[in-house]
Design a protein that fits this description.
The complex is a heterodimer of chains A (about 325) and B (about 290). Chain A has about 325 residues and is mostly helical. Chain A is built from 13 helices and two strands, in the order αααββαααααααααα. Chain B has two domains: about 45 residues; about 230 residues, Orthogonal Bundle (MetI-like fold), CATH 1.10.3720.10. The chains are: A mainly alpha (about 325), B mainly alpha (about 290).
Chain lengths: ~325, ~290
Amino acid sequence: MAATSTTVHGAGPIAGSRSFIDRVRDGDEIARLVTFVFAGVTVLITLLLVIELWTGSAASRHKFGLNFFFTRVWDPNSGDFGALPFIYGTLVTSAIALAIAVPLGIGAAIFLAELAPARVSDTLQFFIDLLAAVPSVIYGVLGVFIFIPLMREYIQPALSNTLGFIPLFSGPAYGIGFLTAGIVLAIMVIPYIISVSREVLLSVPRDQREAALALGSTRWESTWKVVVPFARTGIMGSIFLALARALGETMAVTMVIGNTPNISASLFSPGYSIAAVIANEFTEATGDLYLQALIELGLVLFLLTFILNGLARILIVATSQRGGGGH
Amino acid sequence: MSAGNARLRWRKLVSGFMLAMTGVCALVAVAALFFILGYLVYHGGTSINWNFFTKLPAPVGETGGGMANAIVGSAKLLLLATVIGVPIGFLGAIYLAEFSTGPIAFVVRYAADLLNGVPSIVIGIFAYAVVVLPFKHFSTLAGGFALGIMMIPITLRSTEDFMRAVPNTLREGAMALGASKWRTIATVIVPAAYRGILTAVLLAFARVAGETAPLLFTSFGNHFWSPGWNQPIESLPHMVYIYAISPYEDWQRQAWAAGLVLLGLILIINILARTILARGVSVPRS
């Protein structure tokens, strides 16, 4: 809701013509001051968060520099910390999640925006919103008790039997690992892609569709060749939004990825992600450098999601403005 | 001519097929929700009993026990989060919607959106740095602080939208009657937008109610009661996590039950929030 909000013009403050003294006596200036302080607190907290992440990881940043991102050793005993396996795990699981969630999500959004009658579309969207509200630890539970056995017994053996010649799908089937984490993540981010893409598709002006249909295109051709390209940037925005969610997701991934700092071409092998290593090791981090290395991982996560969310917002706003009140 | 017809038939076939596929996509997404709900009810439903709500967790090796401490713990954490998050979000939103002009509003909105996108585990690190470290131990306070911070941007941004949606004629009418600005806000604008504001608060509450990651190293967890606000405390989502990854069958059984209670609570709040909103508010959605 907050992510797609735009400013309603003309609903702003009304300029009073009374004098400053009058406004103080009426309590207006006091109300302004009080609400201003609370609004300022939001900014302060955000600033403080960035500062804490930056200063909290100072020693780690100075000691390892850029090598932090390219070293694969993570050894608390010797004080060597390299984030490569975690970055790798985060990127691979997010890529798998998007590979599954993007086609499914966009397909569903097209159905909701273009085909389904308004009443059906709203009802289905209601369920999609509820799906987005399911907490990640619940996905973790389902992952542990349903996906891991399912992957181990059926899906991974089947994949390695048919596609085993590709390194991605070779190796022993543990059940846990990159692929399982990616699939669980996919289910988690689909609602975000659907909700935002649906909004964007609905904002495409009606005459675009009518023009395409009048030129003799079929319903699908008008959707795929006219409406979707029109909404393209907004749909990209929804994908970035979903990617930001996937990168920062902690609990579900921690419960199914296997928690082994490991870089392997096989998607079946256990791995680790940035968020998962923070979740697992933060409380037992002994020594300053260890803790600082973990905080630096948090900083990396923060920066990644910061950039992606920013891009997403720009793209979504750009499309809705182009649609210009089409519905 | 017949070639043209064949081509048209083919295009119609493709159209029908692809449109049907989009329906399948939508069906799969919605089915996921019912699958999740059904599985939780199936596995957890039988384990929800009186003991679950009234007993402390049983020691390892013993069966039975409940999650009374986690339920009370979650309630305390969420109470604290609401006390921290809602006033800041609500009053900040009043400033944005009614008082602010120009660059300050932009900065506040930008900060709120930024905060909204921060992964919850990073919020946990932040709460650890500013609350746990100075107090030197994990506490209810730290956990509530982390959850409260997560509530701020959600409450703030949607409350602002709902207040802006109140027609300007209401503002002008109140001021024409001689009401001061803050009186207009308190007696006209906030009451006019209260359904929307309530929805925003409920959704923010539901969002943080299921959060586990920011609690891992703030409220930490506790197998017993946690008196006061300055000790580690158990929470329902954290209990789901540690019981689900435990090797004990009885704990895993209870993880399902706790998951069901948690999900049920969150879905009910969500449905409630959306029902409140659906009942006649004049709110143009963006």
